[in-house]
Amino acid sequence: MLLQYHNRNKIEAGCDEAGRGCLAGPVVAGAVILPLDLKNDLLNDSKTLSEKKRYYLRDVILKESISWGLGIVSNEEIDEINILNASFLAMHRAIDELKRKPNSLLIDGNRFNKYNKVEHHCIVKGDGKFLSIAAASIIAKTYRDDIMKALHKDYPIYDWLNNKGYPTKKHRLSIQKNGVTEHHRISFRLIKETD
């Protein structure tokens, strides 16, 4: 089971993002403050869970969390400020949405831009170590998937229903054949260069 907290005397928010490696769509972050006594054996890194379990757990998180927030940074903003800064911005926007203000942030990964004067701890693979980061990863992943499923209806040829904007072979071939949409990240290498 994952750890319930880093410091039980702090109001901790776990933060994570989804969609960094995608060729299309936004990067989306979640921030979640969980009760100290929350126990859930299913709650884990979103990448290790089936889609059905992720959506089930999202409902649990929305119901059981003290507070949760969602941050979205568009593909245009990603192209403007780069994906690393966009990921930090998405997390900042998610933290902004929290109704209860944390005094400690648990960040998935090894880098972060300080949020106001709140202390933060970068934890590599934190979504597999702390419940609050795992919860944030599920919020980010499921809401981003919802966005890509909705965009798929207008652009079915890119197969976003299945690839969610990630660089699959089919997605790259569709870009090569049909060009880009207003949802693609122009600053990314959209077509693999061949020798």
Can you describe this structure?
- A five-stranded mixed β-sheet has the order 3-2-1-4-5.
- The protein is globular, with a radius of gyration of 17 Å.
- The model has no long low-confidence stretch (mean pLDDT 95).
- The chain is built from six helices and five strands; from the N terminus they run ββαβααββααα.
- The longest helix has 24 residues, at 131-154.
- The chain starts with 11 loop residues before the first strand and ends in a 17-residue tail after the last helix.
- The chain has helices at 51-64, 75-81, 83-96, 131-154, 160-163, 169-178, and strands at 12-18, 27-33, 67-73, 104-108, 119-123.
- It has a domain at 12-147: Nucleotidyltransferase, domain 5, CATH 3.30.420.10.
- It is of the alpha/beta class and 195 residues long.
In short:
With 195 residues, the chain is α/β, with parallel strands linked by helices. The protein is 37% helix and 16% strand. It has a domain at 12-147: Ribonuclease H-like superfamily/Ribonuclease H (Nucleotidyltransferase, domain 5, 2-Layer Sandwich).
How is the topology of this model organized?
Layout: E1 12-18, E2 27-33, H1 51-64, E3 67-73, H2 75-81, H3 83-96, E4 104-108, E5 119-123, H4 131-154, H5 160-163, H6 169-178
Parallel strand pairs: 1-4, 4-5
Antiparallel strand pairs: 1-2, 2-3
Query: How far apart, in Å, are the first and last alpha carbons?
Result: 47 Å
Name of the top-level CATH class of the domain at 12-147: Alpha Beta
Supply the CATH superfamily name of the domain at 12-147: Ribonuclease H-like superfamily/Ribonuclease H
Radius of gyration: 17 Å
Count of individual helical segments = 6
Helix-strand pattern: EEHEHHEEHHH
Beta-sheet strand percentage?
Answer: 15-25%
CATH architecture grouping of the domain at 12-147? 2-Layer Sandwich
Beta-strand segment tally: 5
Mean pLDDT across all amino acids:
95
Shape: globular
The strand order across the widest sheet is: 3-2-1-4-5
Pick out the low-confidence regions.
none
Portion of residues within helices: 25-40%
The CATH topology of the domain at 12-147, please? Nucleotidyltransferase, domain 5
Please identify the structural class as seen in this structure.
Answer: alpha/beta
| Major sheet | 5 strands, mixed
